[in-house]
Amino acid sequence: MRCNGIDSYFNYRLDARAHANFTGVETRVTELLQLQDVDFVQMWPLISLVLVILGVLGLKRLFPVIRNLRTSRQQVCFIRETLANGTRSDDRRVIASLSTVPDRIGNLGPTIRSLLKQTRPPDEIVLAIPEFSVREQRPYIVPKYVSRMPRVRVLHSGKDWGPATKFIVTIQDELAAGRENTLIMVVDDDRLYPRDALETYLYYSEQLPNAALCFRGAAMPSTLDWDDAKMIYARDIREPRPVAVITGCGSYFVRPRFFDRSLWDYSVAPPVAFYIDDIWISAWLSRRGVKRYVVPASAMMRSVRRQRRTVSLNKIDGRQKLNNETIAFFRDTWDIFASR
Questions:
Q1: Is the separation of the CB atoms in 165 and 155 below 8 Å?
Q2: Which residues pair with 243 in a beta bridge?
Q3: Which of 49, 64, 84 is the last residue before a domain boundary?
Q4: Does the pLDDT of residue 31 top 80, yes or no?
Q5: For burial by CB atoms within 10 Å, which of 227, 264, 293, 320 has the most?
Q6: How high is the mean pLDDT of the chain?
Q7: Percent helix, strand and coil across the chain, each to the nearest 5
């Protein structure tokens, strides 16, 4: 199978800084050529040497960019060949789930469209919305454009579960409907996902049917300090890698049967756990004996620019300290530790 190495959703380009370097060289040469009373014949060896040095410096900056592009193309080809050799099973119920806050609900279009454009689109895109935002202290108003988008279902919740709303409300709904084997791609409201993301998850879920999957995660540091965590990225691997914590910005892939009511029981948890959804869901998966893996992908997610100046679900002061408090609460739960 021929592969051109470029994911049709993401566009790669050379680093703009390399162009700036060459522009600077051009400017200096032009200034030199404009000088009068200069014997350029005698100076030519020196000029040539300077040009060679500048060219080498420019190439040194370009080499990492070219190497990264080559690596990206190779990863795209690997995923395409992997998916082409896999078996397709489209009879399974597959949905995407996300939540948002009132300040961001008007900018969901790019993320939803990136899900609708998947090579295997979700059967349904569930937008879980509480009645009232604890973070912003105001009610939600759902814009008309949301209900007009295909495959989108607004799922109202009487309670705000913080960032965890994006998976708790949908998992509750699927369990209540007796759909415990639904495959759920949990996503963030400010990300764009590669077009083959869902198809990639489906492929690896065939290999690992009883595991939670993600595109970004980490083993637990032996220090239990999340500052020491070393992230594993889907674009950098060719085999699934076990992790302790799956991270939501890269998305996760789970089934309702992996959980019970403990997932939404915060009664004995520290108050900070309300904001720490990745560690929360990872710990409950671990307690239930569900393994977690980062699986290979053709590329990583991208940020939605229009969401950058809005209120985030999980950008909070002192987040690293809050991460560590939640990790400590689940101290005896962690099963995958980073090697020293």
A1: no
A2: 292
A3: 84
A4: no
A5: 293
A6: 86
A7: 45, 15, 40
**HSE toward the beta carbon, residue 105, CA cutoff 13 A:** 21
Residue 25 pLDDT greater than 60, yes or no: no
Q: Which two tokens stand for residue 2?
A: 């021929």
The neighbouring-strand residues paired with 254 are: 184
Q: Give the pLDDT confidence of 63-76 residue by residue, as tens digits.
A: 677 677 788 899 99
Last residue of a domain, one of 84, 107, 135: 84
Residue 277: closest CA among 292, 294, 264, 259: 264
Instruction: State the residue range of the domain holding 38.
Output: 16-84
DSSP state letters, 72-122: HHHHHHHHHHHHHTSPP-TTS-EEEEEE--TTTGGG-HHHHHHHHTSSS--
Cα dihedral value 192, 194, 196, 202, nearest 10: -60
The confidence band for 39, taking pLDDT boundaries of 50, 70 and 90, is low
What is the distance between the alpha carbons of residues 248 and 166, in angstroms, rounded to a whole number? 10
Query: How many separate domains does the chain show?
Result: 2
Residues 74 and 100 in one domain: no
DSSP, collapsed to helix, strand or coil, labels residue 53 as helix
